[in-house]
Amino acid sequence: MLIVTISKTLRxxxxxxxxxxINKDRKDHVMKRRATAILLGIMVSSMFLSACEKNEAKExxxxxxxxxxxxxxxxxxxxxxxxxxxxxxxxxxxxxxxGDSAKSDEDNKETSVKEEEDGDSSxxxxxxxxxxxxxxxxxxxxxxxxxLSDDDEDAKIDSEEMTSQIEDGGYEAxxxxxxxxxxxxxxxxxxxxxxxxxALIIDPVDSYGLTDILKTANEQEIPVISYDSxxxxxxxxxxxxxxxxxxxxNDIAKExxxxxxxxxxxxxxxxxxxxxxxxxxxxNAALFLCNGIQEGLQEYLxxxxxxxxxxxxxxxxxxxxxxxxxSAKTKLDSIISEFYAEEKAPDIICTAYDGFxxxxxxxxxxxxxxxxxxxxxxxxxxxxxxxxxxDIAAGKMSFTMFMDRKELAKGGVQMAIDYLTGEKVDVKxxxxxxxxxKIVGTFTCGAQMIDKDNYxxxxxxxxxxxxxxxxxxxxxxxxxxxPEATPVPKVTLKTASEEDSKEVTPTPETEDKSExxxxxxxxxxxxxxxxxxxxxxxKK
Length: 540
What we know:
18 helices; alpha/beta; single chain; 4-stranded parallel sheet
């Protein structure tokens, strides 16, 4: 039907084109229509052929489905033979595929088991390697040697905090204390060098006495952290950890100005006397502390609001070698005796160490002054020792400065660990700390003023317990028992009649009567103890 329709359509178009006359104007139009007809014919033919192919494919598919479903159809002998061969080949292929599949499954299973075993073995090996690596890492971290200068309260904190911080950083800690013996400290450093420690943290007994031994440490490529006190005259230290003592000195000066109200005293043309006991001349931190105090008070010294009668204001004049309390006491006693004989004490005693403050208290107490009295001076301390806090609570000391030793200990250790591990070292000052050979990069921390109003914070932050800083009880003076009264002898008074009636023992006469009177002619007057002549009545 479709073919017939298309054929008729094409014949109609051709007839129309041939029967009508074609003039010149229509020539082009006709040619276009002919071309269009040809193209249309081609398109229709293509559609027809495509439709035929689809119909044939559909019919073949339907026929194949019907044969498969019903199991019927004509099969020739050759076809049966070919079909039988195809079937055998198909069965063989299926069998082969099944065998291959089974074999593949078996191979996959064996491979999986092998991989699992290999994985377990690999995991075990990996675990062993991890453990070995961990052991190697732990062993390779090494040891950090800590050398402390003296066996005091600060050393106890340093030892505990540094040990904890070093171990947290993956290193072994070994702490030695020289007990104030510079020779012993040098031998301890040598021991650490011989052990090939990873680093040294040194609080020096003698800041000037470690040049040679640190040269040996440098030759062994052992880094050195100077701690608390700056090690002098050597290039063989890497870093320094200390308090910012210059800034703390400024804070001490501000507190003196505030508590003594020096600005008002200046307005009123009033002056106060002051004396200084500063730290050891061989301690760089002590120098900075002294400079900080003088910077803050200098203007009041210049205008006469503060007067230092001894004239000792420079570090050279006020420093106490090796922080000796005995030397401080001797020096202050001499100053008071020479310059304050009348007053018994200056108005202010500014010290760089709590121990110096104790020495001042002892001198004043021995001279008869009482804490809290008008004569008792302002005494400043430095260090916030437990005894200093007790003295503040008792009114003996005005204030002290608290430096968090734990913070300093952690800072010093962290410098060593950061240097060893290649991390950036926390340096807060690159310009101020010159040890005579080089300027040393320094970690610093500050301080807090402690007085009677806030000393309880040292309990709150865990520095002390209540019992450790409780004021010492004031001793009750012993009452001296009054001596027993000596009994007064009873005096019996005699009347004149009793005296007259008293029988007088006659005195034997003597042969010498040349004077005309005898002892019996004389009696002693009880009042004037003079001799008088007896009357006739008395003689009777």
